[in-house]
Design brief:
Elements lengths: L11 H22 L8 H18 L4 H32 L2 H10 L7 H37 L10 H32 L6 H20 L2 H7 L7
Helix pairs in contact: 1-6, 1-7, 2-6, 3-5, 5-6, 6-7
Length: 235
């Protein structure tokens, strides 16, 4: 079965490199969220700290410090969502101008293929950025939910619904952070997907480099060792 233009311009190496990118993106995300029991990822370790935060929040008076942290988290997600939106808008405008695409032949001689193939390859970048933007937007919304739940925690820490409501806020906070991490990974792999313009070998190498960086930050970083140093944590 013949693929429609410009898909028929993709070589088997291109398809294999693209498949490797998608599988690596999914695999590192799944492995980060569901690591081996004896080797938790940084993201998994942070879940306990977020629950501890909400337990301390119950008895902290005043709670201005906690509100400041939540505001910082929401600003971070808002910044990344806005940055992705701007990048997507610029990418769509670029793809919609055939003259700019045709001019790349002289400006960047290392690029492989023609304008139609470049459009297809650049679409992979835009799809990853779109996924990242949606994750950041949802994370921002969840941090907002968490703020409301925190505001609903009674000032009297002896109230029967005080700790349960704070732990509800912790669970929402954890889910928001999970989506934020998903968005960051999508941005990382979107940057790797840009290498596809140089060919399938460049895409494969960029995917390997991104996979290593994301793995190291979750399983081999200095920050992870610091988190593991807390009493009772598994080395």
């Amino acid at each position: 079965m013949r693929l429609p233009e410009p898909f028929d311009a993709l070589s088997p190496a291109d398809l294999a490199a693209l498949a490797f990118l998608v599988i690596a993106w999914w695999a590192i995300g799944h492995f980060t969220e569901h690591p081996p029991r004896g080797r938790p990822s940084t993201s998994v370790l942070m879940k306990d700290y977020r629950r501890d935060w909400m337990r301390q929040f119950v008895t902290r008076q005043p709670r201005i410090f906690d509100a400041s942290i939540m505001d910082s988290l929401r600003q971070g997600t808002s910044f990344y969502a806005s940055a992705c939106m701007i990048a997507i808008g610029g990418g769509v405008a670029f793809l919609g101008d055939p003259q700019k695409l045709s001019g790349l032949n002289g400006d960047l001689p290392l690029l492989q293929g023609g304008p139609a193939l470049w459009q297809l390859k650049f679409m992979a970048v835009l799809l990853l950025l779109t996924n990242a933007m949606l994750k950041f937007i949802w994370s921002h919304r969840l941090f907002g939910y968490c703020s409301v739940l925190m505001a609903a925690v009674p000032n009297d820490h002896d109230a029967p619904d005080c700790l349960p409501r704070a732990l509800q806020a912790a669970d929402i906070n954890i889910h928001a952070a999970k989506n934020f991490n998903h968005g960051l990974r999508a941005v990382y792999f979107a940057l790797a997907a840009l290498a596809w313009l140089l060919g399938p070998v460049a895409l494969s190498l960029a995917t390997l480099a991104t996979l290593y960086v994301t793995w190291r930050r979750e399983f081999g970083s200095h920050s992870r060792r610091i988190l593991l140093s807390r009493p009772g944590a598994q080395p």
